[in-house]
Amino acid sequence: MTAPQRLTDRKREAIIQAAIAEFRTNGFDITSMDKIAATAGVSKRTVYNHFPSKEELFAEILNQLWDRVLAEQETPYSPDQPLREQLKRILSVKLATMGDDNFLDLARVAIAAAIHSPERAQSMVARMGEREEGLTVWIRAAQADGRLKVVAPDFAAQQLQGMLKSFAFWPQISMGQPSLSPAMQRTVVDSALDMFLACYRL
Length: 202
Description:
Number of helices: 11
Helix content: over 70%
Protein name: TetR/AcrR family transcriptional regulator
Oligomer: single chain
InterPro entries: DNA-bd_HTH_TetR-type_CS, HTH-type_TetR-like_transc_reg, HTH_TetR, TetR_C_Proteobacteria
Pfam families: TetR_C_7, TetR_N
Number of strands: 0
Radius of gyration: 20 Å
Structural class: mainly alpha
Number of domains: 2
CATH topology of the largest domain: Tetracycline Repressor, domain 2
Keywords: DNA-binding
CATH architecture of the largest domain: Orthogonal Bundle
Strand content: under 5%
Distance between the termini: 53 Å
C-alpha cells in the first residue's frame, strides 16, 4: 500500500472515530458534518469525499459495529458437543457485547434516530441485515442434525435473544439501568437456555 492510501485510510478512520464521539455525545440530529470534521481534524470536503451524507456515515458506523458483533458470535455448530454448552458460549458473548458502553451508546443514538425518521431506520436495518446472524445459522444447523425441532430459525433466534434483551439491553437503553453483573449474566443465560431447550430440543 502506498503512503497516500495509508493517509486516506487514517483520515477515514479519524472521521469515523470523531463521528462516534459526536453521535454518542450529541445524538444524530444535533451532530453536524462540520463538527465531525473539526473533531477529526480534517476539512469538511474530506469528510464528504469519504461519506456523501451524515446518514451514510452513521450507517457505516453501525455496519462496523454489526460486523464486530457478528465476528464475535461466529461459533460454528458442532454435532459432537452438547447443545447447551454451545449455546451458552454464544449467549455469553452476546451479553458481553450488550454490556459494552460503546455499543449501548450507539444503540441509543440509532434508536432515537429511527424514532424520528422511520425511513432512515428501514435503510439502516436493510444495510445491517445483509449478513445472516450467527445464532440463526447455528439453529438451522442443529435442526438439520435432528437435535432441535424444525421451526423458522430466525423466529427461534429472535425469541432466544429477546429473553436476553429484556434483562441486558432494553432496561439499560430505556431506563439507564447499569449493565448486568457477571453473576446476573450467568443467571439470565442459564434461565434463557432452560426455557429454549425445554421448548425446542428433541
